[in-house]
Amino acid sequence: EEGKGAGAFSLVFRSRYLLLIALLVLLMNWVNTTGEYILGSVVEDAAREAVARGAAEGQSVGQYIGSFYSDFFAVVNVAGLLLQLFVVSRIVKYLGIRVAIMILPLISLGAYGLLAFFPVLGVVRWAKTAENAIDYSLMSTVRQMLFLPMTREQKYKAKQAIDAFFWRAGDVLSALVVWLGTTWLAMGASDFAKFNNLLELIWLGISVWIGREYTRLVRSGQPPV
């Protein structure tokens, strides 16, 4: 079997298909993590403003934020569950991987495009709700399906490198951008949303490429090289 005995990173960098998946995972987590920062900063500002105006129903800033996140994660989890149960299988069956893999970057592109001009709590909340619910359901399923055409070694070695290193690399890059943006560039929520839009355009392009590669591999019955 070709590539037998190769290291995990060697397998990733030797295969265009695997490298594209690695870049997809990196960009996806980079965008999502930066989005979590945007949400957190907008929630904190809204909490301070609500307490100052006396519109927080007697809650402190910390209680207001805690209450917000309690409701937020409840909605995200319920939406993700419903999508997984009733929508994901139908999207994959009727639209295929080539379309399914583009849904999250398109949703994110629209959501952060809206946030770039309206960085208010209501918009941020529902943008992140949609992004996270689709990420936890549809995108999670599609990411696993992308590994189906691979060899046994690629599934057990390269997949681990992608799921661990490249996923965490997205976290690190997001932290770096947030640090630079807040420390040196005076970036606000709107600016970070615009930066995410740039990443999403690259992410969308990679998604289109992966969809084509996946279709080609499935039709040929050959693993990626």
Compile the SSE list and pairings.
Blueprint: H1 8-14, H2 16-53, H3 61-86, H4 88-94, H5 97-117, H6 121-145, H7 152-183, H8 189-220
* Amino-to-carboxy terminus distance: 11 Å
Which residue ranges are poorly predicted, with pLDDT under 50 across at least 5 consecutive positions?
Answer: 1-5
- Major pleated sheet: none
**Morphology call:** elongated
SSE string, helices as H and strands as E: HHHHHHHH
| Count of runs of 4 or more consecutive helical residues | 8
From the alpha carbons, calculate the radius of gyration and give it in angstroms: 19 Å
User: Roughly what fraction of the amino acids lie in strands?
Assistant: under 5%
* Number of DSSP-assigned strands: 0
Q: Give the % helix.
A: over 70%
What would you call the structural class? mainly alpha
Question: What report would you give on this structure?
Answer:
With 225 residues, the chain is mainly α. The protein contains eight helices and no strands.
Identify the notable features of this structure and list them briefly.
225 residues, mainly alpha, 8 helices, 0% strand
Short description:
This protein has 225 residues and is mostly helical.
